[in-house]
Amino acid sequence: MSSETTAPPRLRRAITGPLLFLFILGDVLGAGVYALVGEMAGEAGGLVWLAFAIALVMAVLTAFSYAELVTKYPRAGGSAVYAEKAYRSPLVAFLVGFCMLSAGMVSAAGLSLAFTGEYLTAFLDVPQVPAAVVFLVLVALMNAWGIKESLRANIVMTIIETLGLVVVIVLGAWVIGRGEADLGGAFTPPDESTVWVAVLGSALIAYYSFVGFETSANLAEEIRDVTRVYPRALFGALAAAGVVYVLLGFVAPAVVPPADLAESTGPLLDVVRAGGVVPPGVFAVVALIAVANGALLTMIMASRLAYGMAQQGLLPSPLARVLPRRRTPGVAIVVTTAVAIVLAITGELVDLASTVVLLLLFVFLSTNVAVLVLRRDRVEHDHFRAPTVMPVLAVASCLVLLTRQEAQHWALAGVLLAVGVVLYLVTRRSSRPVEVEGRDGGSGTAGA
């Protein structure tokens, strides 16, 4: 091993169980639900709660695979590391990692546009795109400050956004208790489609609200006692988010008619107005905090994933450089933020969100297969083991959801993957795994 004076700085193991639970909960309880309940009602009528329940089950199936692989291979890089070990193909590993990395940057770009949309313009009349750029720069500065500091900020924001959703549920229950709601609204079927087809389409939208748990795999090197802590935090956070979402999906169409929810750009705000207690402006602030928190957590994931892939020689090795004092992946933070800014300038929110889901379904499909393939690989330490039926059912759920995607989103994902292949070929030709060409006269600093 290298001496302490020559060894590169490593990521700090500073994430405890409560911090990890709140990280995952904050990522799952993201900004999507503040707008997507209306879209879900447009698909499934009042059966929004059922769509949330189906999406929760599908998410938990894949979570079993992540619980096993993260505790078995506790390294930054997540799904890309698992793909490389399972399929023994650097190209496949790169494409899996690139799908997840792209999804993270695309999601952050979409969240920046959501932050600078109607919720922000309720207080400040500013141009959307320049404000989105400033927002992403501020998120990058918080990310570079330090993982522990970032997660402490996440604690505050997660508590606020969770309380905001709880307030919506409580206000909805109060309206129901006053006899001013129609409980039948929560059981109103869709008008123009068969029930199960419509609910499945709504579940695809709801699935976007649950994605985010997979980003925690990229923090594996920074979690204390990962074998014990990770599964508890993962399943605990998904269960908590599931309860909130299902209750939200029940009270919203009971308080506000499903047809009105479908037409609204702020469906939860309509529920708050019906309660008549909380000022709408206060709830708008909560929504802004939720969006900001989602963007921060997404960019933490993207930068750590780029760092891990660089360590594996799948991306240029400078991305594996760590800031000496802050112990955060500084180069990766700069690069992922720059790409997110370009996407925010050139993209539209709806297309960005749909592309995120499609890219992550490819990642989940790879990970669920990988957990079965890697059963033959034994490790010396204890780790979580998922029942075999779980990844098998998870593969089936991913295939079902892929059939619900639209052609234009397949096209956009294809373009992103084509860019990924070009980047992979260039990287393989110009560099070697975990080596830095000393253009500045220094020795290599990346790698393990």
From TrEMBL:
Signal peptide stretch: none
* Alphabetically ordered keywords of this record: Cell membrane, Membrane, Transmembrane, Transmembrane helix
Q: Highest taxon of the source?
A: Bacteria
State whether keyword Magnesium applies.
no
Note the topology in the membrane.
Multi-pass membrane protein
For this protein, the parts annotated as crossing the membrane are 46-70, 91-115, 127-147, 154-175, 195-213, 234-256, 282-307, 328-346, 352-374, 386-403, 409-426
Q: Which residues form a coiled coil?
A: none
* Location within or outside the cell: Cell membrane
Q: Does the keyword Cell membrane apply?
A: yes
Give the matching InterPro entries.
AA/rel_permease1 (IPR002293), APC_superfamily (IPR050367)
Taken from the record, one Pfam family name reads: AA_permease_2
PANTHER family in alphabetical order: AMINO ACID TRANSPORTER-RELATED, MEMBRANE PROTEIN
- From the Swiss-Prot or TrEMBL record, give the protein name: APC family permease
Species: Cellulomonas wangsupingiae
